[in-house]
From TrEMBL:
This is GDSL esterase/lipase. Keywords: Glycoprotein, Signal. Pfam families: Lipase_GDSL. It comes from the Eukaryota. PANTHER family: ESTER HYDROLASE, PUTATIVE-RELATED (PTHR22835:SF675), ZINC FINGER FYVE DOMAIN CONTAINING PROTEIN (PTHR22835). Belongs to the 'GDSL' lipolytic enzyme family. The keyword Signal applies. InterPro entries: GDSL, SGNH_hydro_sf. GO terms for molecular function: hydrolase activity, acting on ester bonds. Residues 1-29 form the signal peptide.
Length: 396
């Protein structure tokens, strides 16, 4: 009898240990950014964040047709089957999804999304210097900042009101990936990687200039600057393998970007400037895709090398949550959610959004991310372990 009682106690304890991470994940996966009290979010960048501006520029584009948006039952112009990382950031801040700035007859009381798919950080003049040709839009981040200025001037009639609005908002500035991806190799004899490294100082300088502009001209107090995703990676039986050349460029960019952001923090000590670890988010996703319920880490869900997603005859997988890759360049709603659960606890710590984290101690970000990640694991597992624990406790 004592043996049975001890065994039952051990089983209860084991079940509790299984459930605790899930409960921690559900708590950490809530509105972690809500404590910052953001009145709005303003976002700049490319297709990673675009919620419909590219579609407004090019009506009838494939991102406006099925199966884009299939998971949320409508094609919004997002380059995914559902929501993207910026939508999850807004959700964590208690802010509705951001409407695209270029879409007519929508309101922007909670901020605006200025990001446009396919664009980069470099201005038109800088792109010409480095032979960068964007695929279909010239609305790079410098243009988006002009839209931001126009929006503020239209919405707020005096400088004080505009500054107060921006001071209480979160600003997210991304968009370097397309500058690297769209170098015209025909115009230089240098290898691709060498060309990518040559334009890196200009991209870092542009990032610094844009962040300074947001702080000095508009009064930004909290700014997130995402790095570049880990690129050229595939899951194989022997582990995750990445294109060393492409990965080295992305890693170097992210390293130098963090150094640049540290210099900006020293220059503007009263401003929270936070690095968004996209590299770490994708790395964690590739390392733990099975725990996240993903069965096809390498294949794309929509389209193929011959027919682009959204075009007539393009293949569609039917179950995007089984995949990391939505199309040839973007992730699924499920993958973006998992990456967001990695990022958001770090952002909350860096921005000082924790209920007991007024100083925004970044050293707590790793443990916060670890707790948040459990919320992304397969929901049936969480349900099963919770029910098992309740059954054991009631029958004890």
């Amino acid at each position: 009898m004592h043996f049975l009682t001890a065994a039952r106690s051990m089983l209860c304890l084991s079940s509790l240990l299984l459930v605790l991470p899930c409960l921690l994940g559900q708590a950490a996966g809530g509105r972690l950014l809500e404590h910052c009290g953001f009145t709005a979010i303003y976002c700049f960048g490319d297709s990673t964040f675009d919620s419909g501006n590219a579609l407004a520029e090019f009506p009838g584009g494939p991102m406006g047709r099925f199966p884009y948006g299939v998971t949320i039952h409508r094609a919004t112009g997002r380059f995914s089957d559902g929501y993207t990382i910026i939508d999850r950031i807004a959700e964590a801040a208690g802010v509705p999804p951001l409407n695209p700035y270029l879409k007519r007859d929508v309101e922007h009381s909670n901020g605006a999304n200025f990001a446009v798919g396919g664009v980069g950080l470099l201005s038109k003049e800088a792109r010409a210097k480095w032979h960068v040709k964007l695929p279909f839009s010239n609305s790079s981040v410098d243009i988006q900042l002009k839209w931001f200025d126009r929006h503020l001037n239209q919405a707020y009639r005096n400088q004080t009101a505009r500054r107060e609005r921006v001071e209480s908002s979160l600003l997210v500035l991304g968009g370097a990936g397309n500058d690297y991806a769209n170098i015209n190799l025909k115009l230089s004899s240098l290898p691709r990687v060498d060309q990518m490294k040559r334009i890196m100082p200009d991209l870092l300088a542009a990032t610094q200039a844009y962040v300074k502009k947001l702080i000095t001209e508009y009064g930004a107090r909290k700014v997130v600057v995402p790095g570049i995703f880990k690129v050229g990676c595939m899951v194989m039986s022997s582990g995750v393998h990445c294109d060393n050349n492409l990965s080295s460029v992305a890693a170097l960019h992210n390293q130098l970007l963090q150094q640049e952001l540290e210099r900006l923090r020293e220059e503007f000590p009263g401003v929270r400037i936070v690095y968004g670890d996209m590299w770490g988010a994708t790395e964690w996703l590739f390392d733990h895709f099975r725990a996240a319920g993903i069965h096809h880490p390498n294949e794309r869900c929509c389209g193929n090398s011959s027919i682009r997603c959204g075009m007539p005859g393009a293949p569609y997988c039917g179950n995007p949550s089984d995949y990391i890759n939505w199309d040839d360049n973007h992730s699924t709603d499920h993958a973006y959610r998992i990456m967001s659960d990695f990022l958001i606890p770090q952002l909350a710590a860096g921005l000082g959004c924790g209920a007991n984290n007024d100083k925004g101690d970044s050293s707590s970000s790793s443990s916060a991310s670890a707790a948040g990640l459990f919320g992304s694991l397969v929901p049936p597992f969480r349900i099963f372990t919770t029910l098992l624990l309740l059954f054991l406790l009631l029958s004890a």
